[in-house]
Write a structure and sequence with these properties.
The protein is of the alpha/beta class. It has 27 helices and 19 strands.
Length: 717
């Protein structure tokens, strides 16, 4: 609610002028041709054709190599172990009878294991392939020795020496630190499941260190190493089916700890296992958070083959896709890679330590080799591909439950297509989808660990029991009569004159205590050393425990701007509140129309975020946000994130007085026509909110009156 600059206010004189118009001199066909050339569509198409042609040649060569190495490993296995290791180089019929005498186990094997295309094998040019040897129904795991091509170090075989058939689980018990009475009232369980070629370190190195004190006191956390990965068993006589993984999780976590109520958090491949658990224990699971879930319903044919072709398409580019296809389509070439890297991981780790001069390597590097080819190969096909045919059933179970479902994915994910999140939304309409701008498959968590952890805590708190230490959550800090000092702990410069300030609250579980739509008064010193008091609206909510944030635009002549410009981490800000006339209750209107200008966006953002993050609030929000230039737009990334995550409930229309050359928003001033087009029509169950510089507010009041919005349908911050 800070005052806007004079140059923005001047855009709204008492007598409004017409919007700017742009004329084009090119005829339509000419414009289209030039657009195609300069947008790079033609060169891009040529590159795609070249990549496709090169991919065909390279993968044809790899088809040949895989057939040759099939024969190579047959002879080498017989030399070292007297018996050749089974492979999946024959047709479907051969596997159907050889996999197991147990019909259930046979049905769980993915057809992608034996229906992968190979030009030379399909044409019958080579006859080196051999059938998978049958085995009797396995009660537990009997074969504990690794193959000659697997690593035999103490770290990789620790599960053998321990004689333990349970998974490796990292358990973090609730802290005995402060808020002991809260802890006694509600200790909740959270199970973390990692993705492919990863381990429990993915969670213990990212989420665990960033937990708030409140979370440390009230949640018991389990991070598991899945069967065949990390420090968990890697038996040779296991097919690593979906059922094998689920049984191992139940045996190692659910049953011994009697987890009758728990939250689930999973990444990538782990999402399939989490969905299976949620479907089976729908009455026990309180929330499920899926990060980059691989869900691709088949348009036709097999769901398993669809998943293989989409997640591991046979292409050279991008490189991460080539790596996935190489390891997923070629059983024997993949074994060569595991032999060179995984079996010799100690050598590679020593070389990396020498080159980087670091004693401890990044956990992502260590996790990459902590598996056998047998465990990774079967898990890839039987869980990621084989689980695809069961996903519809799992999601249907979630759709019919009241389970809190949350999906988080990066907008630049090259491993799991972005459409997967939308597919889940179509199957489970009440699921909340959060697309993180500019994040990929890993950086959706890595690099934003603190923010990601806060998101998880908000999800858990949103479904917490009312007995969960209510006095902790109501530990409000504001005083409406007296100023209180809050310490600046982080300052993030967003542009040359805009910064985000994070202030610490007294305890990690404290909340600011600011009702939705209200503001605070901040006191500081101007350049003459005189006191100045000005209202601001935080962009955070009371669901953000332990801190609050202000996004401030600092003007050259602004008195309070001087105070913020001079603030450094460790300084204190005097704050009093709450202030304001606006009071909001979920569902009080059907829809809000919002007219914001400049820094007047902050109360709108606060209200919109509170509405959209409440799964029980179905209110729709239509925002028109006006600025002078593109650089003046505040919170654009956050606003675009809301539009992406809540497309059916939040619409935003940007208006610029001085737009860039390429601009698809409004141009000029906010007009009556814009309000008619982008805001809800006059009705008793809607309300129009406005906040901007005085000239804009006056102009908007005139527009709304002309459009027959009654006074009770309007509110000005």
């Amino acid at each position: 609610m800070a005052q806007s600059p004079s140059h923005f206010a001047s855009a709204y004189p008492l007598s409004l002028s017409l919007s700017h118009t742009h004329t084009h001199t090119f005829p339509l066909p000419e414009m289209y041709v030039l657009s195609a050339i300069f947008s790079g569509k033609w060169p891009r198409r040529v590159i795609e054709i070249l990549i496709s042609a090169a991919s065909s040649i390279v993968f044809l060569f790899l088809d040949l190599l895989d057939v040759i190495f099939c024969a190579f490993f047959k002879f080498v296995d017989e030399f070292f172990e007297e018996t050749a290791s089974p492979c999946y180089c024959q047709n479907r019929g051969g596997i159907g009878t050889a996999a197991s005498d147990d019909d259930d186990r046979e049905s769980e094997l993915s057809e992608t294991l034996y229906e992968r295309k190979n030009f030379f094998r399909d044409m019958g040019f080579f006859g080196f392939s051999r059938k998978c040897q049958g085995s009797k129904k396995i009660q537990g795991w009997t074969v504990k020795t690794n193959r000659w091509s697997d690593c035999g170090c103490m770290s990789c075989l620790s599960w053998v020496s321990n004689g333990d058939q349970k998974l490796h689980v990292v358990l973090r018990e609730p802290s005995n630190a402060p808020f002991e009475d809260c802890k006694e009232k509600a200790t909740e369980n959270v199970i973390f499941i990692h993705g492919f070629l990863s381990s429990s370190l993915f969670w213990t190195e990212t989420v665990f260190p960033n937990l708030s004190e409140f979370a440390k006191c009230n949640y018991r956390l389990f991070a598991v190493d899945l069967l065949g990965f990390g420090g968990s068993p890697k038996p040779r006589d296991c097919f690593y089916t979906l059922k094998d993984h689920l049984d191992a999780i139940e045996k190692s976590v659910h049953d011994p700890f009697r987890s009758n109520s728990f939250h689930l958090v999973a990444h990538s491949m782990g999402c399939i296992l989490a969905l299976a658990l949620a479907a089976k224990y729908s009455k026990s699971v309180k929330s499920i958070t899926l990060i980059a879930p691989p869900y691709l319903p088949p348009s036709q044919g097999s769901a398993s083959l669809t998943a293989l072709n989409r997640l591991a398409d046979r292409k050279l580019w991008p490189l991460i896709l080539f790596g996935s296809s190489f390891m997923s389509w070629y059983e024997h070439l993949g074994r060569c890679v595991c032999f060179l890297i995984c079996r010799n991981h100690r050598v590679w780790e020593w070389i990396l330590r020498l080159l980087t001069r670091r004693r401890c390597l990044n956990f992502m590097i260590v996790d990459l080799t902590r598996h056998t080819h047998h465990s990774a190969w079967h898990t890839m096909h039987n869980v990621i591909c084989g689980g695809a045919k069961l996903m519809d059933g799992y999601l249907e179970a979630l759709k019919n439950s009241s389970l809190n479902v949350n999906v988080i994915q990066g907008s630049r994910d090259q491993v799991v297509p972005l459409e997967c999140s939308n597919n889940i939304k179509l199957k489970v309409p009440h699921a909340d989808i959060n697309i993180i701008p500019n994040a990929d498959h890993s950086s959706v968590v890595l690099g934003r660990e603190e923010e990601f952890t806060r998101d998880l805590e908000r999800i858990w708190a949103s479904v917490a029991d009312t007995t969960m230490g209510e006095e902790c959550l109501q530990n409000a800090c504001l005083d409406p009569e007296n100023f209180k000092d809050f310490k600046l702990v982080k300052r993030t410069q967003l542009s040359h004159n805009v910064a985000k300030f994070r202030f610490e609250l007294p305890t990690p579980t404290s909340v600011l205590g600011l009702p939705i739509g209200q503001h605070i008064s901040c006191r500081g010193k101007d350049n003459l050393g005189e006191d100045v008091i000005k209202p601001y609206t935080p962009t955070t909510l009371d669901s953000d425990v332990g801190y609050f944030e202000l996004v401030i635009k600092m003007y050259p002549q602004g008195r309070m701007s001087h105070h913020f410009r001079e603030m450094r981490v460790g300084d204190h800000l005097a704050v009093k509140g709450p202030k304001g006339r606006f009071k909001y209750q979920p569902g009080q209107v059907r829809a809000f129309g919002m007219l914001a200008g400049g820094s007047g966006i902050t109360p709108m953002f606060q209200v919109a975020r509170a509405i959209l993050e409440n799964p029980k609030d179905k209110t729709k929000v239509h925002l028109i946000y006006a600025n002078v230039t593109f650089e003046d737009i505040l919170l654009k990334e956050e606003l675009d994130g809301l539009a992406t995550n809540y497309p059916d409930r939040f619409k935003i229309y940007y208006v610029l007085n001085q737009p860039p050359e390429v601009w698809n928003g409004g141009v000029g001033f906010v007009s009556k026509e814009m309000i008619q087009t982008h805001c809800p029509a006059p009705s008793p169950d809607i309300q129009i909110l406005r906040c901007g510089p005085p000239p804009m507010n006056k102009a908007m009041a005139s527009h709304l009156e002309a459009l027959e919005y009654a006074p009770h349908m309007q509110f000005q911050f």
